[in-house]
């Protein structure tokens, strides 16, 4: 058994397949899941695992060169907006409807158990060298 890092075999395998420029949508339990991308659903119950926990775990495993989130998060979910701007100084904010459209281009969707609105981010993978 793996000792550290991401233990979920579906998520670990999906992350290993990502390449430069691929998109990863990390989303709350209410975000519509687009057809097409691979989906790893981590939701166990409302709030478990949280958006913050999943994001922290993914950032320990990925190189991220850009991130996009819904502008509505600033007013409706300030904690998520603060978390995202803290991690991504160049965070791009777009209307939620546009984020949903952009999410269809993601290669991977990671669904959390987060039950607060607008806890969603589309990450663009970078390279480690």
TrEMBL record:
Keywords: Carbohydrate metabolism, Cytoplasm, Isomerase. It comes from the Bacteria. GO terms for molecular function: D-ribose pyranase activity; intramolecular lyase activity; monosaccharide binding. Pathway: Carbohydrate metabolism; D-ribose degradation; D-ribose 5-phosphate from beta-D-ribopyranose: step 1/2. It catalyses: beta-D-ribopyranose = beta-D-ribofuranose. It is found in: Cytoplasm. The active site is at 20 (proton donor). InterPro entries: D-ribose_pyranase (IPR023064), RbsD-like_sf (IPR023750), RbsD_FucU (IPR007721). This is D-ribose pyranase. Catalyzes the interconversion of beta-pyran and beta-furan forms of D-ribose. Its main location: cytoplasm. GO terms for biological process: D-ribose catabolic process. Transmembrane segments: none annotated. Its EC number is 5.4.99.62.
């Amino acid at each position: 058994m793996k000792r550290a890092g991401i233990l979920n075999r579906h998520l670990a395998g999906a992350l290993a397949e990502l390449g430069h420029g691929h998109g990863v949508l990390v989303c709350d339990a209410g975000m519509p899941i687009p057809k097409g991308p691979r989906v790893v659903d981590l939701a166990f119950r409302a709030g478990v695992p949280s958006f913050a926990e999943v994001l922290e775990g993914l950032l320990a495993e990925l190189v991220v060169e850009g991130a996009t989130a819904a502008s509505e998060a600033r007013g409706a979910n300030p904690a998520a907006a603060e978390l995202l701007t803290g991690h991504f100084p160049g965070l791009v904010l777009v209307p939620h409807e546009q984020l949903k459209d952009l999410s269809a281009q993601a290669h991977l969707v990671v669904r959390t158990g987060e039950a607060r609105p607008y806890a969603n981010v589309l990450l663009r993978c970078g390279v480690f060298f």
